[in-house]
Amino acid sequence: MSLSVPVPDPPELEEIDPNEYEDAEVVGDTDYKREEIEALLREGAWEQAFSTWASTTDLDEADFEIITDLGMIQRFDFFWDSFAERVGYHAPGIPEDWKEREYHPDLESWGSVSGINAALTELGQLVCDVLKNEYIEWETEYEAPDDLPDFD
């Protein structure tokens, strides 16, 4: 299946500690290189990843309209994980209590909610892969802490 929608603007990345996300564990320094990543997204990484994702996603235009209405694209976060030398991400998602909260008037099934959440996770991972494989050229200099035990 393919999603035929215009490529939205890339997200503007905010200074958030990735460890505050329930599903993220980041070890290393606090230079998450968001400014650099945001520049790379604007330089073409976002469009490349989004276009690839749109050509393969099972998401339909109605579900993508829900994503757009909720401003979910702008809630993505991408950051550099210096310890793992990878781009980390946090994808926005529709909460489990979407029905009780009347989260969006066009959300009618768990299938749509699950599909949207899965599709956004896939988009986030694809953006990370494109950034790391085709745009990022820096390497992290990791220094071990001075207080490690001496095993000599």
UniProtKB/TrEMBL annotation:
InterPro entries: DUF7992 (IPR058305). This is DUF7992 domain-containing protein. Residues 3-152 form the DUF7992 domain. Pfam families: DUF7992.
